[in-house]
Design goal:
With 545 residues, the chain is α+β, with helices and mostly antiparallel strands. It has helices at residues 5-17, 20-42, 58-71, 90-96, 124-144, 187-200, 233-258, 315-318, 378-392, 412-487, 498-502, 511-526, 528-544, and strands at residues 49-53, 76-78, 82-86, 149-157, 171-179, 204-213, 263-272, 276-284, 293-305, 333-344, 347-355, 359-370, 401-407. The model is unreliable at 465-469 and 472-505 (pLDDT under 50).
């Protein structure tokens, strides 16, 4: 406390010098300043809480609220199925609700943990149903581990085994995915989900698997021809990838030259997805007579003589009772036959060509420039056309097309967005200035009020001594009269006797002085402030004199 006396001493003296009204006013000013400081420091700040759950359904929200009540964790409900809890209890709230199977996620113990308990007394049908449930939940857990997937549900249809394979129904499955906000499942990821489920279920083929999201969009990868363009998903992805890459390169080139937002590029490509296999056989030289003979083989046949007479062939000629007739005379002659085989020495060339699918057959590029269509810059249009023609690889022989058009871009949406952003920035800047101004003006205002209060107190203190001085001057004749009376002898008031003036008397205390001193003492006890002010007035007069 001794160390604080130099600080507290002046404060206590100032406080004691204030009147009751001034003290009450000072306390009110300090309280108002404290409230203002609290409001300023807390303005613009939300509660010290964080989002623990979002995107919940009504059932899940009710279950989580009940769990939080049981765990005695404070919570705040917001629109959109959002629950906020204190920042320091977010993990505690999530752990308290873990394993409840919320948001379509499998609950704890719903996988193959179902078979950890003894299954005595269960029927074969119950065991099959539990196995299917466990397999579905295990697949949902595995799919839910993907980065883009928030939760998943898997439904399996596993027909009974039949004796004849022709009567066996195929196994089918469907997967419903709930994607995280801002996430997208591309074709490769959808194909991985399809392969994961098909490889985990016996007899399931990827053709019998359907993948959808909660918005009803089909995510099943289509590797066969089934789209309106007659292309498979792989072919469409390859074509769109080529178009996107070409657009990006051309747009980046134009943005670097003309500036951002000064040009727009669109690319359309047509690809040939036919796989062609061609075999060519070539013989050289083309004229065989000019080629040396490798082998020459000649065969010649000749015959001489005629045929003997005979009857009519058949059963009648073999029977003796039937007369026979002599045929005509047989003629004589010579026949010959010659076969010649010549083998030439020829050169044979066999060429087999296989053309991979995906060849570019036609490319169309459209470029729009932000320029006045009524007075376009012809030189700029020509330069852009030449640059894009070379960068995109335009080939007129295969039907490629390039157009460069000057149009005035509609920037109303951009202007509106910029105005909204500027307005929001100005509001935020104004709030910041008000915050800083309140922090700076608040203490200054308190000091000004305190200064005026102290100045008013000093004025009152200066006025009080003047009143006391006047009162003291009014009573001064009485005191002076008392003092003068005390200076005279007791026997003859106002005059000294001659006997006393010449004769020495013993020193004794004057009763009049005793009386005056007693009166002053009583006056000091009854009104000490007046006496003090009177003494102070005398001292001030002595200093001035």
């Amino acid at each position: 406390m001794d160390t604080l006396n130099p600080v507290l001493g002046p404060v206590q003296r100032v406080w004691r010098g204030l009147s009751r009204g001034q003290q009450i006013g000072l306390v009110a000013v300090l309280a108002a300043f404290g409230g203002l400081l609290f409001i300023v420091t807390t303005v613009g700040r939300g509660p010290d809480s964080a989002i623990a759950f979002s995107g919940l359904s009504n059932d899940d929200e009710a279950a989580i609220v009940q769990k939080l009540k049981d765990a005695k964790i404070p919570y705040e409900l917001q629109d959109g199925g959002t629950i906020r809890v204190p920042s320091g209890q977010v993990q505690e709230a999530r752990l308290a609700t873990a394993g409840m199977g919320l948001g379509g996620k499998p609950s704890a113990g719903s996988g193959f943990e179902l078979f950890n308990q003894p299954s005595f007394g269960q029927t074969e049908f119950t065991q099959k149903v539990n196995y299917q449930r466990a397999l579905e939940n295990e697949l949902a857990r595995s799919i839910g581990q993907m980065d883009a997937v928030d939760s998943a549900r898997v439904h399996l249809v596993m027909p009974e085994q039949t004796l004849f394979s022709s009567q066996q129904q195929p196994t089918t499955a469907s997967v419903m995915l709930k994607l995280k906000p801002g996430k997208h499942l591309d074709t490769a990821q959808a194909r991985s989900v399809s392969n994961l489920v098909a490889g985990s279920v016996q007899g399931l083929k990827t053709q019998n698997l359907t993948i959808v999201d909660v918005n009803g969009n089909t995510l099943t990868p289509n590797d066969g021809v089934g789209s309106a363009t007659g292309l498979s998903s792989k072919q469409l992805d390859a074509q769109r990838g080529y178009e996107s890459a070409t657009e990006h390169n051309l747009q980046a080139m134009l943005d670097n030259v003309l500036g951002p937002g000064k040009a727009t590029v669109r690319v359309a490509a047509v690809m040939n997805w036919d796989q062609i296999e061609q075999t060519n056989e070539t013989y050289t030289p083309s004229d065989p007579t000019q080629t040396p003979v490798l082998t020459n083989h000649t065969i010649t046949e000749s015959s001489n003589g005629g045929a003997a007479p005979g009857g009519i062939p058949g059963a009648a000629s073999n029977n003796a009772s039937v007369p026979t007739y002599q045929g005509g005379n047989g003629g004589t002659g010579t026949t010959s036959k010659t076969d010649t085989e010549t083998t030439y020495q020829l050169n044979k060339s066999v060429q087999k060509t296989v053309r991979a699918p995906g060849a570019l057959t036609r490319l169309s590029v459209s470029v729009m420039l932000d320029d006045d269509p009524n007075n376009p810059n012809a030189a700029l249009v020509q330069n852009v056309q030449n640059a894009v023609n070379a960068a995109a690889g335009i080939d007129p022989s295969r039907g490629d097309m390039l157009t460069v058009t000057s149009l005035t871009f509609n920037r109303q949406e951009l202007v509106t967005a910029q105005a909204d952003m500027e307005q929001a920035a100005q509001k935020q800047q104004l709030m910041d200035y008000l915050h800083l101004g309140a922090l700076a003006v608040g203490p200054l205002l308190m000091l000004v009020v305190l200064f005026f209060l102290l100045r008013r107190g000093r004025k009152r203190q200066a006025e009080d001594p003047m009143a006391v001085s006047s009162q003291a001057q009014a009573g001064a004749p009485k005191v002076a009269e008392v003092v003068e009376k005390s200076a005279l002898p007791v026997g003859i008031p106002g005059r000294m006797s001659k006997a006393q003036s010449g004769v020495a008397q013993p020193i004794a205390e004057d009763p009049q002085k005793v009386y005056i001193r007693e009166q002053i003492r009583l006056l000091g006890k009854s009104n000490p402030g007046t006496v003090a002010q009177l003494i102070q007035t005398w001292m001030d007069e002595d200093r001035r004199n």
